[in-house]
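Proteins fold reproducibly. Take a sample protein:
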Amino acid sequence: MSRNNRRSRSDFPDNATVMSPYTLADQGSGGSIGAYLLNRAKPHLPPWLGVGAAGLAGALGNWRWDESAAAGVGLTLASVALSGATWWIGRSTSTQRRLHSAITVASGSAWVTAACLAGPMAGPLDDLYLMGGPVLALSWNVRMLLRTSDPSGESGDKGLLEKVGLARAQIGAAKVEPNRVTAPVALEPGEQTNEDVTKSLARLASALDLPRNAVRYTPDPGSERRGELVIVPEDMLSEVVEWEGPSNVGGSIAQPLVIGRYDDGAPLVIWLPGDPEAGRNGTHVLVAGGTGSGKGDAALNLLTEVVSRRDVIVWFSDPKMYQDFAPLRPALDWAAEGGASTEIMVAAVEAVIPARTRWLGAHGYRQWVPEAAETQNSAEHTCRTDGTVCGCEGMPFLVTWFEEAANTLRALGDDAFTGIAQEARSAGVSLIVSLQRPSYDQMSTSTRASLPSVLALGCDPRDEGFSLPDEVLAAGAHPGAWGNRRPGYCYAVSPGIPEDRYASPGRTRRFTHRAVPVMEMLATWSQRNGALADPITAGAAVSIAGTAYTGRPDENDPSEPAGLRVVQEEDAMDDQNGPRVDPEDAHIDPEADLPETEEGDDAPIFGQDSGRKPTPQEARELFARALTEFEQSGQMIVGPVDFLEWCDRNQLSRPWVSARLKEAAIDGRLEATNTTGRWRIVPALTAA
């Protein structure tokens, strides 16, 4: 017989004898069949031997203690004690077995007591013996047959639960799906809680010879002793799946974003906008994972899904200079590379939120929905007080993404995103923060609490609590077990995902060099077909960032970015309203010649006694030109350090610059930032 066709002893019940078919053929027909039948009957003989022993005990007891009052008392007490001991000993078994054992012992001991005192043939005792004895013996035979033929019943589940310390727990009918078994669990009332099951998951996985994260438990929120046990016998994530393209090009951002798959093969999806019909809120996402955990690929999976949708714009900050995201950069409405440009993006997002919220409220939207991105041709969503159709341009969804956010948090403070995270969802804005270790020394607790969704990849075991909620970790999630050994493995917790999926591991798709041409094609498609920033969003951004925000090139006129178009429209409005000149400068003739040089002009070093110091008016004009230079170059966050080269070029001192910064702030040309010594330039249009 070949090795593959052999059956191991573990395939048979412990009480069965393994026999080869060839053994019967080689032996004689008489004795061999009898031996086989005897071996098969042996496990069922003990109940019958017990019946025979009871009859013999009754006959011998009657010969010894016939009509003895003292023996009657002793036998009665012994019968009661034996029945009680049987009930007490069976407390660790199932209720059914405990009751069956107690009834059998009580019936047998009562018959033996009566037979010893009155005789086994007295009255109905002989009939009771002949009828009741076989019934009790057969009941145990039937129990044994059912136990042997159904290993998933009491001898299977109950034995397994007993091994892990949950002997009294009850398992209901299991729901079997492809590579997933879900079974309801009811614990012993008053003695076991859901926490006991959570603590036993590691032992249960060991008993089933499965990895720790293959066994999960989801408590019933309405009960402390009920829940669902989920077992995934095969890890379907071990096979690497490469990214081949987005799942729904041209769809709405309100539709699910497919970023990978679960360990049972189901798609791993996330929603960003809310859905009032489904009762789902909009969300912000935290992408967390250690070095080498596949966080970059996870971000690419999510970003490619976002830019493939028709009604969304993306503002993206990446201090790593778009090392991973360069092919997708043309699809972004605003791309910042860290530092001052990211700082101004954060300020712009803060300004955009109230502007968008005001527009949505004026058009009758309690939250952003896909209809808000379309031209407002419905009287139900009009901003006019008379109820007529307003025809306003739609407002696409806005995703603000801060990659390697630890860099930004170090520069701006741990609460840099707190206000955005708390207020942006109602404005149709989703905040995505990506960093390696979302610990509380990097991100404030208020910010972390305002990020309802998380995509948690492999990490240090000590960092699990920073990424996932305690209840998800208690249900069996364990990202610390992966570290950087399984890139792309993750847990997803987000509105819209069933809670029993929170502790189910998934895996994102891998991006290789073969994905680059597809990403470039996707970026080109987004340029041609994706949404442009609406006037409200672009206008609010320009009011803060000035020329630092240009927007994505218009499909019809690639040379004219959306942000600049808004600036030009505002310029045209200002031209119609008249020139923008300060009243104190109205007497200056712009065509007049500059005054002649005076003594001391060859040494204009401020802070020294020699040389002629400029008048306050000249100082303001000189510094205003410097601010204009920074604004035109797109650098909207400045401080004394940014004026070093300018000071050398104009032979000015740093204390003089610091004084001018304060004066410009008083005049409204600068605004203080969260960082000491840093100022945000107010665009000239806004200042005017």
Summary: The CA atoms of residues 173 and 545 lie 61 Å apart. The chain has five domains: 3-35, 43-149, 154-231, 257-537, 602-687. The two ends are 95 Å apart (CA to CA). Residues 1-30, 148-156, 563-581, 597-612 have pLDDT under 50 and may be disordered.
